[in-house]
Every structure is written in C-alpha cells, then in structure tokens.
Amino acid sequence: MSYIDPAMRDMLDTFVHETETMLEQLDEILLESERAGSISEENIGGIFRITHTIKGSAAMMGIEGISNLSHAVEDVFYILRDDPSKLDLVFDTIFDLVFQTSDFLKREVEKLQEQGLDYVPDDPSGLIQKLRQQAAILSGEGAAGGAEHSHEENAQSGNENLARYKIHVFFSDDVQMENLRAFMLLTQLKGCCDYLSSDPENPENDPSLSEEIAKNGFIIYCNPSSSIDEVKQTIENSLNVKSYEVVDLQEHDEAEKESEQGEGNVNADSGSASQQTSGGQKSSSKNSKHSLISVNQAKLDQLMDLVGEIVTAESMVGSNPDLRGLKLDNFTKSFRELRKLTNELQDIVMSIRMVPLQTTFHKMERLVRDMSKKLGKKAELITVGGDTEVDKTINDAMVDPFMHMIRNSMDHGIESPEERLAAGKPEVGRITLSAKNVGGEIVIEISDDGRGLDSEKLLAKAERNGLLTKPMSAYTDKEAFALIMAPGFSTSEEVTEYSGRGVGMDVVRKNVEQIGGTISISSVKGQGTTFTIKIPLTLAIVDGMNISVGKTIFTLPIASISQSFKVNDPKQIIRNTNGTEMILIRGECYPIIRLNRYFGIPGGAEDITEGILIQVNNNDSKACIFADELIGEFQVVVKPFPIFFSKYDLKRRGLSGCSILGDGTISLILDSNNLICEL
Amino acid sequence: MNDTINAGTSYSSDLKDRYLLFDIDDTKYGVSLEYVLEIINVQTITTVPGVAHYIKGIINLRGKIIPIIDVRLKLGLPEREYDDKTCIIVLNVNEVQVGVVVDRVSEVVNAENSQLSVPAEVGEATSRYLSSILELEDKIVLIIDCEKFFKSELDYSQF
Lengths: 679, 159
Fold this sequence. Notes:
The complex is a heterodimer of chains A (679) and B (159).
Chain A: H1 9-36, H2 41-61, H3 64-82, H4 87-115, H5 125-139, H6 144-150, E1 165-171, H7 178-190, E2 193-199, H8 209-216, E3 218-224, H9 228-237, E4 241-248, H10 249-255, H11 297-318, H12 329-352, E5 354-356, H13 358-375, E6 379-384, E7 389-391, H14 392-413, H15 417-422, E8 429-438, E9 441-448, H16 455-464, H17 477-482, H18 505-514, E10 518-524, E11 528-536, E12 541-549, E13 552-557, E14 561-565, E15 573-575, E16 581-585, E17 588-594, H19 595-599, E18 612-617, E19 622-627, E20 629-637, H20 650-653, E21 655-660, E22 666-670, H21 672-677
Parallel strand pairs in A: 6-8, 13-22, 17-19
Antiparallel strand pairs in A: 1-3, 1-4, 2-3, 5-7, 8-9, 9-11, 10-11, 12-13, 12-20, 14-18, 15-16, 16-17, 18-19, 21-22
Helix pairs in contact in A: 1-2, 1-4, 1-13, 2-3, 2-7, 3-4, 3-5, 4-5, 7-8, 11-12, 13-14, 14-18
Chain B: H1 2-9, H2 11-16, E1 18-24, E2 27-32, E3 36-41, E4 55-61, E5 64-70, H3 71-74, E6 87-93, E7 96-102, E8 104-110, E9 116-117, H4 125-128, E10 130-135, E11 140-144, H5 146-149, H6 151-157
Parallel strand pairs in B: 2-11, 5-7
Antiparallel strand pairs in B: 1-2, 1-8, 3-6, 4-5, 6-7, 9-10, 10-11
C-alpha cells in the first residue's frame, strides 16, 4: 500500500514542481536576509506565505510530515509577522532551523519525484519540536498552542454586511487544487484589504471543495484598505484566474434593492468594475501579465533536434546536385524565403532554451554559507553577471562542476580565519563567481583569495599516485595545476565530508568538455586560484565555412574567420628557425597551420600557392590555416564526437565536434582557439 | 525438459545463447547477439585524426555518428582492402554504439553451455578479448567479449 493516494498521481507532478519553486524562493529570501543580518517585513510575509501554501498543498496530498513541518515554520513566522522586533531574540537559531527545514523539504520533494507513489516519508518531528520551542519563546511561555491556530480565525465567518465588494472569481479550467488556489488568492488579498471573508470559508482545509469552486467559482467579500483597483490588480496578477466579476454591494443595494445578494450572477455594474480575463490571452494590453507555461524539457530537446534536422534538410535541398547549373530564379527566391523562416525558427527555439545563470549562482551561495559554518571558515560568495543566459542543457551541466569547484575552494583554498589574519589577509575569505559573454562564448570564472596551489606539492602527490608521464622537473606550473584534473587525484590529505574523494576535478573537466567547453587554472601561491571555464553559447548550430583538405572536410566557424586569400609567391612565406612557417599580413606576423600536416591527412595540397590561406583571429590568438580549397558557407548542426573518442581529447587537438552535411557526409568542426594553442 | 522451458522464457536470455559468426581470414569469430544492433555494408568512413590506428573513423548512420573499429587492426592482423563482402556490424555495448569492420558475416548459431569452453590463457592479442571458445560440429569459433574488446576506449569515459 503506497503512502500517497493513487488518485493523487496526476497532482503529484504539479505539487513537486510548485513546491520546488517555492523552496527556491524561500532559500533566496533566507540568504538575502541572513546577509543583511535582519529580515524585512515583506520577507517575513514571504516566508509565511510560502510555508503556508506548502502546508496546505502537502496536507491535501496527504503528506503529513511536510505539512506539519511547514506548519511549525509558519507558526513561528506568524508570530514574527505581528511583531518583527521579537526576531532579534532568536535570529540565528531560527535561521538555522528554517534552513534545515528547507533542506528537509527539498529532500522529501526529491524523493517524491524519484519514487512517485512508492514514496516513504521521513520523520521531521525533531525539527518540529525545535520550531515549536522557538515559537514558544517568541510568544511567551505557554502561548505557543494558542498561536498555532489563532491566525486561521482571520477569515472569520462571513458577515457580508461588513464588506463593500463582492468578487466572484473563476479559475482556469483544469488547474486542479482549486481550493488551494482560492486560498492563495485570499492570502494575497489580505495585504490590501481591511476586511476579507470568503464563501466557501477556509477553502484550504477541505480538498473536496475543489470541485465546487471549479464549477461555481469562488466568492470573496472584502473591504479594500485603499481602493478596489488595488484588489483588482492583485487578482489579475495571480496565476490561474480565468475571469472575475466585482460587485459593489453598496451601490448595488441602493440601485437595485430587490436583487438578492448571495447568488453567483448578480448583475454587475458592467462598466469599470467588471472585467473579464480569459485564458492568458488578454485583449487589454495594459494590464496583461506574462502568461507562462512549463514545458517538459524532453519536448524542447526534441524540438531542437527537429530544427537541427530541418536546417540539414534545407541545405540538402539548396545544394542538391540535381540543381547544379540550372537557372532557377523563382526557386532561388522561394528558397531564400524558406531559409529566412528557418533562421527565425531556429532563433526562437534557441531563445526558449536560454535561462539565466542566476538560479545556479544562488545555489552556490547556499553552499558557501553551509560550508563556512561547518568548516569554521569565514567566506563570502560574490556573484557577477548572474543575468548571463545560457542554454538550459549547459546550465544543468554546470551545476555539478560549480559545486565541486566551490567545495574545493572552500575546503582547500580558503584558509582558517587565524591563518588568514596571520598572512595579512582580510579575515573573511572571498570567492567570486562571475559570468560574462565574450564573442559567442560564455566565460565563467571561479576565483578565491585562498592559499593558492602549490605546484611542488601537486607534483609530489601526482608522483605518489603514479600520474606523472615525464620527469618532475619538466613540468611547468600550468601543467602541474592541470594535474588536479587528472582522474584519481585529490589534493587533500584527509577525506572530508565535502571534497577530497579523488573524484572531483576530473569530473568537472569531463562535464565541461561534454558540453564542448574548456577549463584552465591559474594560481599564485598565497594569493588564490582562478578557474576559467569557457563554454559555447549554444551547443546546437553554427555558421561555418566548409574547407577541404585531401578527402577530409572541415568546418571552421565563420565567427573566427577574418579573411581568406591565395599566396601567389612562395617567397612571402617566412621560415622560422624551428621550421614553422609564417606570413606577414599588414605588418603582423601570422603562423601558418597546414591542416594536412597537422592532422596527418594524406593527399592535401603541399605547394602553398595551390591551396588557400584562411586568416583566423581569436581574442588572444591568431594564425593562418592552410587548406586545399573553400567549399562554401553552411549552417551546420554540431554533434559531439561519440563517447568512444573522449580518451583522445580531440577538443584539445583542435576538433570540437562533427556535423552531418547536406549530402550525408561528415565534416569535422575545427576549434581554432585550441588549434592555435597547440602550436 | 529444461530446454523447452528456457526457449520461451526471456527474449534477452534467448539472444544471449545465440551468436553471430563472422570471418577474419580463415578464422571464425562470434559475438553474442545481445550486443548486435544491425549489419550494414561498408560506407564512406570519415577519418578522425589523432586516434588509435584501429579506429577507422566515424560514419553517419541515419543521422547518428558512430565510431568504426577495424577488428583486424585491433587484433593486430595486417590491413586488408575492403571488398563487397566486407561488413560493418553495429554493436551496442553498455549503451554506446560502435561499428566493427569484419571480412565477412557468415551465420547465426545457437550454442549450449556444454559447447563452450574457457579459452587458454595465452598472452596473444587475440585471446585477451575472448570470453569463450565455441565448438561446433565442423568448426571452432572464438567468441569475443565485447566489454573486454572495447575496454580501453570505454573505461576512460566511465571513471
């Protein structure tokens, strides 16, 4: 027999999703408040609302643990809401407890998601006990019991005479849990109404009311504290409201005494007081809210794949060999139109998948907070550029690497407060997490001002673990730093709770490379360490120039190409003493990379005058690439190399992936940055 | 009696006892059918630079990029021109798809445990990759252990 009523299965997803979102909000509020050292009234209200809602919906799902725990937190904040000054008494304890609660709830929600109806709840009674004690302290001895329920009497049995307006609200079809939506609406309205009651009363206590509310709507009696417009605004902004109707009872009484109140469809003064909102697509643009829907990510992935296929199919049509040599004016025109549309489609699909890194950054703040408490170190996390948007896939793939790196920084990087003071550094360590958009790439830096990496120690340790491939003295600092990303390397002598299990940085590297990114480390002993991660803005589609070398076709991203040209006179080529070739372009010296020699491809052009040079400029590197010929400009869908090749580190060799061309053949996508670095 | 029960029980255990046989020179090799996805003709293989010599490159199999390994080269045998008998067997090993080039695909056989024996421990490249030896009436088949065969490639990706 499962813990959750099988009938609730459909609602389970909704519950999990909503609770997750609310817990994220809760964490944000908590972190913000803790940093400020105080909590604003607005935030107290926020926490109260969140826990209250979670309580209600959990109770409805029949999950007592979650419901009771939320109730306990809610009680504490109910008292605080009335008298925020009391918080000073127990600030730290309360925050710890609420953080623990949030963690507990998150774990439970995660379990719900994984186990579905087989969910087995944990017992939160320890936490509840502690929260009750705090509530008791806050409200003065013995009053705790009373406080628990007093607020629920707020929504006193309706005396309609006290209310000036009657509002009849209908919720969107199929939103489910209507009774809770109604209750949430009431909670939102409490802020702007002097008097508030509803029919049915206390909807959150009785799930069976859902059906009735869905059918007949929900009636609110209220007396707004300022104007009815504020109330209307609140109703419009709340989710899932399909339509509502406002009746001014006073005017109504005077104008049409004979009409009885209480029935649903009283004639409303049809002017400004009655407004209809319908299904998210409202005609009045002024008050329109963003209508949001959540979409299963698998569907988005599918859509993305499909768009990729369309782009490929489109170039298959455009460069079809059957069309060669034909003069097709109308066809070309239509084709151009098609291409324009597919480009737009592609842009939109991409933008749908973009999410800001902010949420991920917030999670890290939480991590730093917890770790500094546990490790007895003082540290703050500074985040810059959280509004930078990346593809959802990339965002998700970056969570683990961020965690690992920040754990590493906290564990191994940041010193204890005493050590820091002794070294003449500020007591509080600083970890900076920054993201910025640099020409088609996202550059993320994670830096700390801790003790830095010690290359000698790293090398000694690598030698013990048998990871060295050449004599110790032959390693540069940078190479030594890179060792921490080798599988089976852990810098900490003892294994701690957070890091040092020997699977850390190698996983980071793997994750970063899986999404086509690169990671590098720089560090100054005693001053800190910086990890720089460069990831492509989007994984999917690039504009590329296809070039051929022997029988191999390469795709070079257009973004990095400056120009291409033929060399007529071999004397233009300068030979360096070590055999590398260079060419002077407008007074600047560019090294030449012969792709056929570099990749060992047989049959490519050897004579420099036969092939073509492509000048490539990146942020900090430049070179000329020598190939046989240019084939043309194409949009290609980037596919990563099969996992089979991860051993060979092709990315570092200058190949970032492959793509299927219009005729079904495969081209290799060049990563000019790494190509030049390899020189 | 046991046989009749086994025959209809599980599809996958059924596949396990069946082997796809292929030839390299005059030697017969086999691979368990549970790994085999399909058999295709040799198509244009795009070389990927900088990888082991037995990895011939990648192919486009209906929009999926699949690596191709030449069994001859992996076993340390001399290279041979591909002809119209040459086939690519597409395998699924631990959810990774890979194609292997063989000289010729011959048949599918059923095998019982009594016909299988453990290969002798010889340091040869060939025996390193074998799971067992299958004795049939008229021939001896070397059964390749797919996980061992691709260990050097797949290990890294699963650390």
